[in-house]
Amino acid sequence: MIERRPTQVDVAREAGVSRQTVSLVTRDDPRVSAHSRELVLAAMKKLGYRPNVAARALAARCTGFVGISLSDLVNPFHGELIELIRSRCESQGLIPFITPVAQDAADERVAIGRLLEMNVDGLILISPMSDDAVLDQVGRQVPTVIVTRNAGPDSVDLVHTDDHEGARAVVGELIGSGYRPIIYFGVDRPVAGDSSRARIEGYRSILAETGYEPRVEMVSPGEVGRALGRVVQEFGNGFGLCCHNDLIALEVIGHLEVFGLRPGRDVGVTGYDNSSISGYPGISLTTVDQSTSTMARRAVDLLVERMDGRTERADVVMPSQLVARATSGRTGYSR
């Protein structure tokens, strides 16, 4: 049999105070005397009482709730980013509600609608699929920060990397290491300002400057091996693969083993994100660092500023830094 949860009435009876006093303590109201506060807190601890946050939020002008929406939780970069954002929220006294969604604009809109129904004080949207019209409507309702997207309406703040220059950096690394041709393994996300488009544009721009022909292969989970097989059949070895993110690059490294090829020796491979797994021994993936911890901190801080009344738009561009490791042939392996 499940025991009934203790109520404020139970706490008041145990502490020998009024229910109103208990209510004031849960709201950290300064009008409560130190003695009464100690009695109430002791009673709460003894009974295992927890304040009803939802009820308190309904009565308050500010709830302290922050809605966070993201897709692609299997991507290690997203997992690390969301943990950093969660930690920063809690350090600022905010309560994060994390809502995973499919890579689908309609599913995302439903999730955002539910978060708004919860009366969140703000939203952090990571790589949203929604178009600018939807995002503008959301941004006019509640403070909103978009992370890892290069463009958006004036009603929202942006925090992102210089994806164009980041892609140029890893392609330049592959070219400098002597790999030819340089092939891009990308993802198809037809969203204005999306990182997928900016990185492809960066890839194309540096190849145009150096006189090499671009080749873009769009891949999705489960298709990397087939795409790699086509490239291996055509070129054998000596080519370079510039991957949209670390997740794709890690899958490429796994499939190269099947073809008897070694990254950094037979084939150059680069990722993007500098997720923690990319630096593990035996992987040593060349990638782009997005200053993830700073990105998370800035996103939450911008949201707090919006919640405090700032109205002017902020567009924070994080530096993209090349992290050269063994898979691009510069260290660890000799070609």
From TrEMBL:
Q: Does the keyword DNA damage apply?
A: no
A Pfam family (short name) is Peripla_BP_3
InterPro entries under this entry?
Answer: HTH_LacI, LacI/GalR-like_sensor, Lambda_DNA-bd_dom_sf, Peripla_BP_I
Q: Which GO terms describe its molecular function?
A: DNA-binding transcription factor activity; transcription cis-regulatory region binding
Gene3D superfamilies of this UniProt entry? 3.40.50.2300, lambda repressor-like DNA-binding domains
| Keywords on record | DNA-binding, Transcription, Transcription regulation
SUPFAM superfamilies assigned to the protein according to its UniProt record, in alphabetical order: lambda repressor-like DNA-binding domains, Periplasmic binding protein-like I
In which domain of life is the source organism classified?
Bacteria
- HTH lacI-type domain sequence ranges: 6-60
Q: What is this protein called?
A: Transcription regulator protein (Transcriptional regulator, LacI family)
This chain's source organism reads: Acidipropionibacterium acidipropionici (strain ATCC 4875 / DSM 20272 / JCM 6432 / NBRC 12425 / NCIMB 8070 / 4) (Propionibacterium acidipropionici)
